[in-house]
Amino acid sequence: MPATPAWPPASLPRLFVETDLAEGLTLTLDGTAANYLANVLRLGPGAQAKLFDDRTGEWLAEIVEAGRKRVTLSVAAKLGERETVPDLWLLFAPLKRGRIDWLVEKATELGVDRLVPVITERTVVDRLNLERLRAHAIEAAEQCERTALPALMPPRKLREILKDWPADRALYFADEGGGTPLSAAATPGPAAILIGPEGGFTDPERAAIRALPQARAVGLGPRILRAETAALAAIALWMGAAGDHGLPPRRTACKD
């Protein structure tokens, strides 16, 4: 059946694959993906699924063979192009496990283009499992019908990032000392949001950030926020003010 606005149904399972997808392609999944289709959902030949690869868009595929450890699918039709993503980076000091997993998941749902862990003087976590964080981003994209994944960068020290900062990218940093409300300061164009660690930036770090011509100190309101809450509030404010204008509306509920 050709793809139409009412077909395929939204209830079909969605999976991210590393392979570049194309009509007529046959691919075999193993590991977690195969277990999910064959053993959890108990799907067999003839059942359908949606696939996306973070490059070519979203595709409708049909199961050809289903075993306990491997599932073979045939790509039948293209459902849509890779979504348009606002050019927004999130720079954040690494958090403890659980909280950083949640941050990556929600930032993916909100449409961030790049995630950059930043090592500051008060950062309490200096080692990250990037593979685990990428898995959380993939799961969020699968559940929320995203066809684009954020690029997940290795951790870098704050001073190195500031030294190499792109001339055309605005840097909005949440300053505990206050600043222009982000909803008023945000403007379209390449941008990044910088959120500090639990203890905040040190005075020398704050001075170094403010010395950057592209830096703009912003405030997120009168309340004290945890680092992960501040990050997501800042993303939502920037997206609403400068990021998502002109993009088609999407459903607001993710599948559990």
Protein architecture, described:
The protein is α/β, with parallel strands linked by helices and about 260 residues long. The chain has two domains: about 15-80, Ribosomal Protein L25, Chain P (Beta Barrel), CATH 2.40.240.20; about 90-245, Alpha/beta knot. Helix content is about 30%, strand content about 25%. The mean pLDDT is about 90.
Provide the descriptors you would attach to this structure in a database record.
256 residues; alpha/beta; Ribosomal Protein L25, Chain P; Alpha/beta knot; eight-stranded parallel β-sheet; five-stranded mixed β-sheet
Mean pLDDT: 90
User: Alpha-carbon distance between the termini?
Assistant: 27 Å
What fold name stands as the CATH topology of the largest domain? Answer: Alpha/beta knot
Output the structural class: alpha/beta
Let me know the CATH homologous superfamily of the largest domain.
Answer: SPOUT methyltransferase, trefoil knot domain
**CATH class call of the largest domain:** Alpha Beta
